Amino acid sequence: DTGVSQNPRHKITKRGQNVTFRCDPISEHNRLYWYRQTLGQGPEFLTYFQNEAQLEKSRLLSDRFSAERPKGSFSTLEIQRTEQGDSAMYLCASSLVSGGWETQYFGPGTRLLVL
Amino acid sequence: AQKITQTQPGMFVQEKEAVTLDCTYDTSDQSYGLFWYKQPSSGEMIFLIYQGSYDEQNATEGRYSLNFQKARKSANLVISASQLGDSAMYFCAMREGLEDSSYKLIFGSGTRLLVRP
Question: Could you tell me how far CA A55 lies from the centroid of its own chain?
């Protein structure tokens, strides 16, 4: 399978704990995006990387959130001191920008439940 | 501000019939792209079809076609010959900007399609 993969698929944690999610993009893709989707809504942009550089962060990304993409390959999204409002689906997408428009391909997501 | 509006929270269609899912958008940019994604209950967002703002012809991908009406700022998805496996959430999304911008997608709230046997 050469698509975008995300781990874990599901995570249940207690309020106040830290969690980390991983995204492995399609291998030749140079852009990687994180989105958050709450129940009944469309995904909302959180942040994106061009290779290893994090170039934009949404206002939704509070100080408790941090994302990395070392060496421009996989990416991690960490949430510190989780709150119940963090419960959502976290989606990762990757794309190849090579002039003109690009298409983002999404992974299966990580469902987070904060108790 | 950029915005995508999907006014149909839910739709029913009979198997083998065609269905149109509505999408309107708001942008001040001349250059933008419009996408449709399908999200089954498993959660993965599956890319279906893309339309660029400068494309003169409506996009088609198999049973999917995009009815692009630029003056009305609408980009409706048409699914022909519906199948039971088409039952899912469908999201319209827009991306603005040129090559050096973020290319982040702005999504609508989605339409849940249920195909009846």
Answer: 14
- Contact indicator for B12, B20 with CB cutoff of 8 Å: no
Mean pLDDT of A30-54: 93
CA of A39: which chain B residue's CA is closest?
B109
Distance CA A98, CA B99 (A): 9
Please tell me the distance in Å from A44's CA to the nearest CA on chain B.
7
Contact A8, A112 (CB under 8 A): no
Query: A45–B110: do the CB atoms touch at under 8 Å?
Result: no
Chain B contacts of A104, Cβ < 8 Å?
A: 47, 103, 105
Measured between beta carbons, the chain B residues lying within 8 angstroms of A97 are 99, 103
Q: What is the residue-level pLDDT of chain B in tens, covering all 117 positions?
A: 789 999 999 999 999 999 999 999 998 888 889 999 999 998 889 999 999 988 889 999 999 999 999 999 999 999 999 999 999 999 999 987 665 566 789 999 999 999 999
| Residues in Cβ contact with B89 at an 8 Å cutoff, skipping those fewer than 6 apart | B38, B39, B40, B110, B111, B112, B113
B68 to A37, A45, B57, B76: CA distances (angstroms): 26, 25, 8, 7
B35 touches chain A (CB under 8 A): yes
